[in-house]
Every structure is written in structure tokens, then in C-alpha cells.
Amino acid sequence: LYSNVLSRVRLVLIGRMAKPEEVLIVEDEEGNIVKEHLKDSNAIALYKQMRETLIYLTHLDYEDTETLMLDKLNLQLDGQEWSWRNLNTLCWAIGSISGAMTEEEEKRFLVTVIKNLLQLCEMKRGKDHKAVIASNIMYVVGQYPRFLRAHWKFLKTVINKLFEFMHETHPGVQDMAVETFLKIAQKCRRKFVVVQVGESVPFIDELLGTLEEHIRDLERPQIHIFYEAVGHMIHSQPDRAVRDQLLLRLMRLPNDSFQVLVQMANQNVQFIKQPDTTKSIVNILKTNVHVAMSLGHSYMTQLGLIYLNMLNIYKAYSEMISIEVQQRGIHGTKHQDIRSMRSCKKAALELIETFIERSEDAQVVSQNFVPPLLEPVLVDYQRNIPDSRDPEVLSLLAS
pLDDT tens across 210-242, in order? Predict the structure, then answer.
């Protein structure tokens, strides 16, 4: 009785789907494709309501939902309805119904969708067109982890495609690529650490062997997310010895850089005051923070390698800041060089707190990591003037 009406409702929802939170590429008022910098909370709330409605409608008649979506996708391919907005709303709708169908239905539907989107990407010319299509491909595949877990070859193809997008410098594409990579790594992590059918080694081994190539064109915050994603994969390895070896391989680049900085600081401690040095130290520590977030207690092996050197650098920065404040007075805390040094200290405190919060063995932490921490951190906090004290110290001790 209501099938025709419900079909029209599905069509309206598909054509007017709101933008989900994961999509970072938008069309601005001038019609340019740009990276979104602020989340549109109203659009996100509307998307959640529309998604829930479309899922209910899909449960009522999956075949009609699939037919409507594939018909509209074909109209994109033949150009009759081609536009950025039409493609976006269609793909957002496709991603929204994840889990509303059986695995067999999902397989048939998703393979057709991705094949057509890749074909569309090949057909269209121009960076803006390709950026829009790429963002939609990344969004759709990220919404279907059940399918990806069940089809290794497809999952591997998707990951390799994401690696390609990480070299695309169009605004927002790299951000979406690393965010989608993180999402898939979280949902499918076990698949990457076991040998799959048709493979000679686990995918994580291949990935670590080419890691430098994958992150070559990424910005520092994007690299941090990349490392966090790989950390999730490593965390799913049940063999501790293998897990530790994978972690050492993952951290080889930041560890090598950190060791060079430590050696330079040992020759001349003033080296760590240089702006480029403070930036490098913050970057290395932030990378470690993200790996600690995904690895939890298993991160202990890596922390043990850098812990004492990190605390020595923390202590050196504390002494330098104290001298600067004595010479310049209270306003010295506003100078850029002091702010940079304090950023390094805060990153170190954040790393320790992140590990402690996720540690599963309080005794190991209290015996091995707390004693070396107390002197450089607490004494520094006590002797500093209030304006140069780091509130992160209190947060760390509370953890």
C-alpha cells in the first residue's frame, strides 16, 4: 500500500543527504573544492537523523534502496546528473546504510559502487573533479568494515589506493586519506598482521618496509595519524616478541632522528634551544604520543628506549627557562624561544601521561617509570614562578 510513497521518500533522502562528519572536502561559496576547517554541527546532527531514517527504509525494502542508488550512480557515469553535489549526497547515502543488508547483498552492492566510482574517477579530468570523487571513495569504503574484513584482496586494494591519495596535494585529500586509513586500521587491524591467502608475508611487513615512501608528502599532523593507525595494527599481534620487533621497525625513523638530536645536545646543550630543534623534538614526541594511544601498555618497549634521554632534555629545558626568566623577568615567559621550549616539555608530559593512562601494570610503571620522573619534573615545578609552571604536571601526577 505504501511502497510507492516509501520509494519516493528514499529517493528524496538519497538526493538530499546531509554531509557526515568524516567528509573533510567541501565546495565553498565560489564553487571551489576546499578543505573544511570547522565542523558543521547542524549538518552532522541532520545527517544522523537522515541516516537512521534511511536505514529503517532499507530494512523495509533493501532491493528498492539498492536499485535507486545504483540507478543514480549510473546517471553520474553517463553525465545526465553529474555534479559534485549530486555525487556527494549519493555517496553519503550509500555510506549511511552500512550494516542494513546481509553480507551477500552488501558484497554485490559495494563491489558495483566502488567499481563505478573508480571508473568515474578515470573518466573525469581536472584536480577538483578527482578530489571530489576520491573523497567519496574514501568515505564509502571506510563505512563498510565488515565487507573489508571478509575480502582481503579488496581491503588491500583499498589501502594501496589510500596510499596513492596520501601523495595528492589537493586540499583535504591527504587528511581524508589518513583519517580513513586510521578508521580501517582500527576496524580491520587483525587482518594486517597475519599471512593472508595468496600472500607470503603479513601486510604489516610490507607496510613497514615502505613506510618512508608513504609518509613522504604528508604534513606532520597527518604523519602522527598514520603512525597511530599502524600502531593499531601492531597492537593486534598476539605474540609479544613479534609485536616488539614490529614496534621497533615502526619507530626507526623518529628514533634515529631523536638519537641524532641527543648526540648533538651532549656536545652542546644550547643546540636544543634552536627553533628547528624544538620543532623536531615536539614532532618526535607527538609521533610517540599517537603510537602510545593505539598500542597502550605494549608501547612500554618504545618508551623504555627514549625515556631517560627525554627526561634529560626536559631537565635541560627547565634550567634554560629558569635562567631566561631570571634575566628577563616574568614577561620572559611570553618570548617565542621559551614558549617553544615549554612546548617540548608539555609534549613529554603528554607522552608519559598517555602511556600511564593506558598501562595495564601499575607496579611496572611505579617501579620503572615514576622514580626517574620525580626529580626533573617535581623539582622544576616547585622552583618555577607560577607563570612558567606547566599545568600538565598536575594532570600527569593525577593519572
Answer: 999 999 999 999 999 999 999 999 999 999 999
- Based on its alpha-carbon atoms, the radius of gyration of the chain, rounded to whole angstroms, reads 25
Instruction: Return the amino acid letter for 185.
Output: A
Quote the CA–CA distance of 48 and 18 in Å, as a whole number. 9
Block residue for cell numbers 565553498: 28
Give the C-alpha separation, 184 to 197, whole Å: 20
| Angle, helix 240-250 to helix 252-267, in steps of 10 degrees | 60
> Which parts of the chain register pLDDT below 70?
1, 23-39, 329-333, 378-382, 384-389, 393-394, 397-399
- Residue 320 in contact with residue 273, Cβ under 8 Å? yes
Q: Could you tell me the three cell numbers for 70?
A: 545504483
Render the burial of 188-227: b for 16+ CB within 10 Å, e for the rest: bbebbbeeeeeeeebbbeebbeebeebbeebeeebbbbbb
Helix residue spans in 78-219 (DSSP H): 84-96, 103-123, 127-142, 145-150, 152-165, 173-188, 203-209, 211-214
Among the listed residues 27, 45, 20, the one whose alpha carbon sits nearest the alpha carbon of residue 172 = 27
Sequence-distant contacts of 307-311: CB under 8 A, at least 24 apart: 307/369, 307/372, 308/372, 309/258, 309/262, 310/285, 310/348, 310/351, 311/348, 311/372, 311/373, 311/376, 311/377
What the block records as the C-alpha cell of 12 is 528524496
CA 184 to chain centre: 10
Residue type at position 336: Q
Contacts (Cβ under 8 Å, ≥6 apart) of 261: 271, 272, 277, 280, 281, 284
